[in-house]
């Protein structure tokens, strides 16, 4: 509880935590809106391929134009201003910058930027959970070997779930399940950037459709983002995917301990110590009351009669048997909370969640019947969605990671619902993301995924 005090110490010493942000999209902009107001923090540079757009985002986030008018990195350091640039490598190479925030959302770019940051001795906050799902365990291992911190992004749901799991275990509880809520119906797996509006218009009042990227938004709808985020949680906490992935059971906040427990105990899970995402929609399409669509949760076991009595006495949302209880966080504030990760990396040298093993994967799964010769369009597109899958199943089957299912040509016909394999696509073995992923598979062989 002393991050703010440590930031104030750096402020008083005239040595603020120096940060470079790569990617000025929604997440990056939300962070920037708060970073300007955070004592002991200096955003030295913001890198985005569209520098004019990045300047517009800073203006939208409330930054006075004089603050982001630095002419160079030297000028930014001297005036405690911010350089806006299309050149991410210049930020990564600057020895005066301590922390790099990677917020591009592009797996290949995230992996390349992370490797460069490690090479230059920078801590890395990996907002880019898409890159983490492809190769996070290897990237975190490389960072540790180099003496820098690789961290999941506080404010995003995976880091918040990791904190809840850590809380439960540090308090002596056995974790039964952890995860988040979302809006889900089975047909969502077939949604694409064109028909996603049929879903969004039912529960969001979006008056300006040009304000959002339908492909990006569709990755949240079609189940892909849930698979990616729960993979990050498993690889960081030791929880496991369920054998057939996420089931998205409907649940209110007050039913979490009854729903997210093993089937043998009357719940819906295929075992204990797993991840699950609950739905805010019943299978008949009606809304679940008091749902957890923007929140996170952990379900844990009371292993003594005394602990179970305490669950009831202190309104810990126990299940009907009293054996299990739940703790939930109703919302997550995305980039508005990211400063916690930046400060933790720089001042404590501790991540807010980081992968330690390869237990879970996200595999490309056909949304429709696909034909040989088709080009895959990746996350949130028309062709595939990402299904959470145990890492050993992915390795044994030679399954294709969702993060690499972009701009590659199919070599054979694929049935709807079928998982794609590496052998099904004409991939570029020299691509940086492919090379790092293959290196991770070799480093974290099947013997290390349990």
Q: What order do the helices and strands come in, and which of them pair?
A:
Blueprint: H1 3-12, E1 17-22, H2 26-35, E2 41-47, H3 51-60, H4 73-79, E3 83-85, H5 88-93, E4 99-102, H6 107-119, E5 123-126, H7 129-145, E6 150-152, H8 157-170, E7 174-182, H9 196-203, H10 214-221, H11 224-237, H12 256-259, E8 274-279, E9 296-301, H13 305-313, E10 324-329, H14 339-348, E11 360-366, E12 375-377, E13 384-390, H15 391-397, E14 406-410, E15 425-426, H16 432-443
Helix pairs in contact: 1-14, 6-7, 6-16, 7-11, 7-16, 8-11
Describe this structure in words.
With 450 residues, the protein is of the alpha/beta class. The chain folds into 3 domains: 3-154 and 337-348, NAD(P)-binding Rossmann-like Domain (Rossmann fold), CATH 3.40.50; 158-184 and 223-331, no CATH class; 360-448, Antifreeze-like/N-acetylneuraminic acid synthase C-terminal domain (Type Iii Antifreeze Protein Isoform Hplc 12), CATH 3.90.1210.10. The chain is 35% helix and 17% strand. The protein has 16 helices and 15 strands. It has helices at 3-12, 26-35, 51-60, 73-79, 88-93, 107-119, 129-145, 157-170, 196-203, 214-221, 224-237, 256-259, 305-313, 339-348, 391-397, 432-443; strands spanning 17-22, 41-47, 83-85, 99-102, 123-126, 150-152, 174-182, 274-279, 296-301, 324-329, 360-366, 375-377, 384-390, 406-410, 425-426. It has a 6-stranded parallel beta sheet, with helices on both faces. Strands 8-7-9-10 form a 4-stranded mixed beta sheet. Helix 6 (107-119) packs across helix 16 (432-443), helix 7 runs parallel beside helix 11 (224-237) and helix 7 packs across helix 16 (432-443). The protein is globular, with a radius of gyration of 22 Å.
